Amino acid sequence: MSACAIVLAGGKGTRSADPTVPKVSQEIGGKSLLQWQIDLIREAGIPEAIVVAGHLSEAVFALCELLDTTGVKLQVVSEPHPQGTVKAVEFAAEFTSSTNFLVLSGDVLAKFPSKEFLQQFEASGANAAVVIHPSTHPQDSDKVFPRHDTTVQVLAKGQSSEGIPNLASAGVFALTREALANYGTAKDIGSDLLFLAAENHDLFAFNSSHYLKDTGTPDRLASAQKDYESGTFARRSAPVLRHAILLDRDGVINAVNPEVYRSSDYQVLPGVAAALTRINQSGIPVFVVTNQPGIAKGYMSFHEHERIRASLDQQLGSCSAFVDDYYFCPHHPEGGHEGEVLRLKTNCSCRKPNTGMAISIANDHGVDLRGSIVIGDTWRDEGLATRIGSEFLHVSANCQLSSQHKCFPSTPAALANALDQLTC
Ligand SMILES: [Zn+2]
Ligand SMILES: [Zn+2]
Description:
The protein is α/β, with parallel strands linked by helices. The chain has two domains: 3-214, Spore Coat Polysaccharide Biosynthesis Protein SpsA, Chain A (Alpha-Beta Complex), CATH 3.90.550.10; 240-423, 3-Layer(aba) Sandwich (Rossmann fold). 32% of the residues lie in helices and 21% in strands. The protein has helices at 33-43, 57-65, 85-93, 114-124, 177-182, 189-199, 218-230, 232-237, 272-282, 302-317, 356-365, 379-388, 411-423; strands spanning 3-8, 27-28, 31-32, 48-53, 73-78, 100-105, 108-111, 128-133, 143-146, 152-155, 168-176, 203-207, 211-214, 245-247, 286-291, 325-329, 373-376, 391-395, 406-408. The chain has a seven-stranded mixed beta sheet with strand order 5-4-1-6-11-8-12, with helices on both faces. It has a six-stranded parallel beta sheet with strand order 16-15-14-17-18-19, sandwiched between helices. α10 links the parallel β15 and β16. The radius of gyration is 22 Å and the shape is globular.
């Protein structure tokens, strides 16, 4: 299948740092956003790109003359009457015979595994795809949450996302020509088109922990520049051998509440959100790795579990903290609980200390487990760390485990140690 990249460079940028220059010409690390995007397109293996200009199109044309477009055939087209991002893609699609489109919002700085995104999109059979990540500004983002039952929930910015975990569109999409034909009534890709595709079970969501940042406001542009200078960008965007923190949930992020399964009963422990914020800002990815046998035992449904995750996300989000992705084992090996879910009563490969979730993290996110760190409060977490060759940091007021590891009285103390080790 032939693919073409489409860069949406026509936005008015009324909120951007300097509304008199096109957003795509703003520089990070001495390189224009558009050059970063062309480099991403080249890395994705896409030979053709179309830049759609509208507002300030003369300046966009001039900028394109200066770009290094080695390996990418570039066209710049000017949309006479901008009518939303869907129409802009339709307009660009007239200039190519390609059947698949990688669509980049003009104000996104992205360095992520774009090739894998496109390969998985094609394998999914869906006509629309979106790259998602936790948002540092959830109120102002289009939420996209892939549910346990493989449906995807889409909520446009401003809609109440109560009960929905913090995952949002990163402004990078893939569409087929068929998506344009089927959902052509939509105006905006990020909200309307994704919503229609999701309703039709025709949307693939790709969760990325790599570098994807919307630079559409002066604050966000400055923050991207800061990330570039501090090494955060390099750490997050590294294609391979990234080191990560694998974080247990109950007893580590929130207090242990045995036999309590209502989302309102879950409270993030003191200091955890602030410690996570520092890790997020460093560019070290953080993944939750949690056994949730209460699902197999029938104590809570998948839906209730999602609400608990959403509640924790919301508490972390109020400090601008997030976890990059969330892995859970819903299984339990022994039968005999009243109301249990028989199909989840199994000897699975994901229940810690088994390594299934960690291996998924390595594959999904390009993480080197050997240089990574597991933080947890039980022998199951220690066992996982041993099996995957990671260091184990034990959160415990009085350590009862036998083997060699570092012990910390609180999660923030363990997180601070992990941050020091992984950024030194
Ligand atoms: Zn499992
Ligand atoms: Zn210990």
